From TrEMBL:
GO terms for molecular function: alpha-1,3-mannosyltransferase activity. Keywords: Glycoprotein, Glycosyltransferase, Membrane, Signal-anchor, Transferase, Transmembrane, Transmembrane helix. InterPro entries: Alpha_mannosyltransferase, Nucleotide-diphossugar_trans. It is found in: Membrane. It comes from the Eukaryota. The keyword Chaperone does not apply. The lineage of its organism: Eukaryota, Fungi, Dikarya, Ascomycota, Pezizomycotina. This is Nucleotide-diphospho-sugar transferase domain-containing protein. It comes from Monosporascus ibericus. Residues 334-355 are annotated as: Disordered.
Length: 355
């Protein structure tokens, strides 16, 4: 048992340690905090073109570091400089407020109705459902009323109202609106689902039970493993990755058939889950939306890749941010018909999807 002198020394040491903590925090607030804000603003000095994906990845990586410092260690600091840097880089975020079911024109409202009924009636799912659309021409009021009456907990997001500075990017945009819908969702942990998706089990506890999603804050599924098209996208991605100065992630280099050239596709975007409470995930998703803005998608993205599919993982790869793709590749369900006119067995119907 320590004597009186030891206790006195212990108390003095504790007092000095406490004072040191307050002093260091004050110094950080007055010095490092101001430096951090200056760095955020200085990060906008570099102009990036539509094809500068690798440099954009470097910028997102640095923004993620700054955001983590602010949120994890100094939440009392004003984060407006970080927000200003983000909106200045991604102009579509100006004036934006913050589905997970993206809407692709009114012709698909019956598919969305089937999806809603499957979640509510078949799987007894209680998660909130948000249906995103881009203006009345994309989803009219009569169709919204029909979907609203299907069940409880259904709301709508007009992306033209959520992103007033992105009208040209969103009107008649099809696939391109999907990352915007994910950003606009009021759910911080969001599952993006195509209107024609069919669930074989309820997704309610996926954020608690899927280990890859728990660890990384992301979950994507592989697209079909098939060869179709050239290597332009793969070569372009390798060039952009080289610009970042980083090696490919272990996930990409060890588990991807796309990386080895054995498949023309890597990921599907029919179902994507992300935890937007993690700043690095939110920033990468913002990068994804940028890749789907009209100028970038018309000049680069959709020329190199098949629509939006690859844009949900490429920002993570280029930014050096962890992400998770289920290692299993998409399966197929088909029906063989005998006695075809050609005299052989043929597949009459085929459905492909994640395992």
């Amino acid at each position: 048992m320590p004597g009186p002198i030891s206790l006195k020394k212990f108390a003095s040491g504790l007092l000095l340690a406490t004072l040191s903590i307050y002093l260091l925090r004050a110094l950080w607030d007055n010095g490092t905090g101001a430096k951090l804000i200056r760095q955020c603003r200085a990060g906008l000095n570099t102009e990036l073109g539509n094809a500068d994906w690798g440099l954009m990845g470097q910028w997102v990586n640095q923004m993620a570091i700054w955001a983590k410092q602010l949120l994890d260690y100094y939440p009392h600091l004003d984060g407006q400089a970080l927000t200003a840097a983000l909106t200045a880089r991604y102009r579509y975020l100006e004036g934006a407020d913050s589905i997970y079911i993206p809407w692709e024109r009114q012709k698909n409202y019956d598919l969305a109705a089937h999806l809603v009924a499957g979640l509510r009636k078949t799987h007894q799912s209680t998660i909130s459902i948000e249906i995103a659309y881009a203006g009345n021409e994309d989803l009219g009021s009569e169709h919204r009323d029909f979907l609203q009456d299907l069940d409880y907990g259904i709301s709508f997001i007009d992306l033209l109202e959520s992103f007033p500075n992105a009208r040209d990017d969103l009107v008649n945009s099809g696939w391109a609106m999907k990352p915007f819908a994910m950003l606009a969702s009021k759910s911080r942990r969001t599952i993006l689902v195509d209107a024609d998706a069919v669930f074989l089990m309820p997704p309610d506890r996926i954020f608690e039970e899927h280990q890859g999603l728990v660890q990384s804050g992301t979950l994507l599924y592989h697209d079909r493993a098939t060869l179709a098209g050239g290597n332009e996208g793969r070569i372009f991605l390798q060039e952009q990755l080289a610009l970042t100065g980083r090696r490919p992630s272990k996930l990409f280099s060890n588990e991807s058939l796309y990386f080895t050239g054995d498949s023309s596709f890597e990921a599907d975007s029919g179902v994507v889950a992300m935890d937007k409470t993690r700043p690095e995930v939110f920033l990468s998703l913002s990068f994804t939306a940028w890749l789907n803005t009209k100028d970038v998608r018309d000049s680069v993205t959709y020329k190199m890749f098949h629509g939006d599919k690859e844009t949900f993982w490429i920002p993570f790869e280029l930014s050096g941010i962890e992400y998770f793709v289920d290692p299993r590749y998409a399966g197929t369900i088909g029906k063989a018909e005998n006695g075809s006119p050609e005299g052989d067995d043929r597949i009459d119907s085929l459905v492909a999807g994640p395992p």
